[in-house]
Amino acid sequence: MVISEIPIVESPPSEVDPIEKKNVEVLQPFTLEILKLIKYVQQQHGLRHGDYQRYRGYCSRRISRLRKVLRLPQGDRRHFKKRDVTENHIINPRSDERFLHIPLILSERCWAYAMQLKQESNTEPRKKFHLIQKLRKACIYALQLDELCKIQRCDARTQLEAQAYVAWIHGSLQFELELWVKAAENLKKAQVIYEKLATTLSEEDQLPYKQRVEEIAPSLRYCAYNIGDEKAVNLLELRSQGVLETFDALISQTKEKTAAILHEVTWFGTKIPIKIERVRLFLLSIEGLDDSLKNAEDNQAKIKILENVFIDLRDVISLTRESARTDKQDQLLLTYLLSIRIERTSQRNLLLVEQTKKPQDSVRLLDINIQQTNELSQNESIKNNDSAQEYFTSQLAAYKALRSYYLARTHAGAKRWREAVVLLDVALKASANLKPSEYIPELSSLVALVKETTETEIANTKANFVLDSQDEHTVTVPTKLYKSKKPLIERLDEFREEPQLLSKNPNLVSLPPSMEPVPAKPLFFDLANNLVAFPDLTEKLEGKTKGKQGAGISGFVKGLWGWGKK
């Protein structure tokens, strides 16, 4: 684009001078990493926990701060005057790339509000219209951002990121409007751009782009499914990823498109008629369950798919139990549904066994599997069915072998080596007759693990037992035995190897201790007092008595009349 041909719409405070236009081409271009920026602020402000309201509040505060810093207010406290970011703000030599943040954060705020309304629309369907309105507004701000990024001031990466962001926002809107063809086109465009951008970045910077590509993939497959390519999507997998809002409605659509309607199922040679419509839809929905589990990324994704199945299965069993009270044929159907729940619960427990690091937790999960499988095999409907009994007997044998293996590891962790060896031997003998190919993949892999590692575990356990036994029973035997009747406390200055001190009754101290003389404080007695002869003082005592008698009368008179006072 030639700078002199850019039309000037308005004259804001940051209007470009004619002299400065000549130097625009040599200015450093803006680089705005849109996806990296929004992913970072989303994780920091609420979206880590799915709190769209908190993220929307952050966007509002961020826009206010940006307008204040960039001196782009929209009026004052009394009057509102709309001011958008224009090309003049971008091509100004003194411009700041944060001008591009304003339309981006405005679009993010509208998108966050739409996602909040989407959560609330599950209970309030009328909010669906408000959701669409907010997504339309987000698309308008995204287009403004794209137009600003097309200016020569922005580099190629910024322009590509803006195009991908616009395509993703428009695809999200068209997905909600059920415009499947247009939604697929825009989402595919965004996916391709993000994939290409990821290839040009380092491994550290590729993570948000790969995450966005993975987020777009389920929506693309759902669009392809609605367009007519039914093989491009799996309903159970989409539901576990949160793409579908109402699973029952989608199953109803699948039922209308399916020519052959399910009327009966065969279970161990017994045909079970299905009269309840809800049960038919559920059984149709789980036909591709094994394929969904096979294509899942990890065990956690498989567990999530199974838990979603349990939610629907609970409602179907409750409905069938009410019908079975009056209809005997529905009693057999109820048993069949219970068997599905038990088998899928056992499958979920096996996935947890593969994940857990504590063998005692694995033992508890396998106990549940053994109990449920045993109860199912004793059900009156299949108690006399040879094929069913053979199947469940094989399942129980595999579960018991696994239980013995993990119980042995529990004992080994507590250093009970004898019990561990016995249980490992039981697991080895039990697994020798098992054929992993006859079981589901989760059980098959665990049985194969027991077969491969049990012999090694037995050898390690025996070696640990021998080492611990040597440590417990090894006692240093002195070359010369020494016995003494004196307790140890009386001969602490002597060192002798005495086995008697290592016995149960060592001679350490005498109790009670013997009496010993101890020094005490001396007592003093005055024995000279009785032998001393004191002098005769009678004369002195008599003279003193006479003097007192002569002065008695005169002293009386002087005291009466006040005479004699000095």
From TrEMBL:
One of its GO terms (molecular function) is endoplasmic reticulum signal peptide binding. CDD domains: SRP68-RBD (cd15481). Signal peptide: none annotated. One of its GO terms (cellular component) is cytosol. InterPro entries: SRP68, SRP68-RBD, SRP68_N_sf. Keywords: Cytoplasm, Endoplasmic reticulum, Nucleus, Ribonucleoprotein, RNA-binding, Signal recognition particle. One of its GO terms (biological process) is SRP-dependent cotranslational protein targeting to membrane. It is found in: Cytoplasm; Endoplasmic reticulum; Nucleus, Nucleolus. Belongs to the SRP68 family. Component of the signal recognition particle (SRP) complex, a ribonucleoprotein complex that mediates the cotranslational targeting of secretory and membrane proteins to the endoplasmic reticulum (ER). The SRP complex interacts with the signal sequence in nascent secretory and membrane proteins and directs them to the membrane of the ER. This is Signal recognition particle subunit SRP68. It comes from Dendroctonus ponderosae.
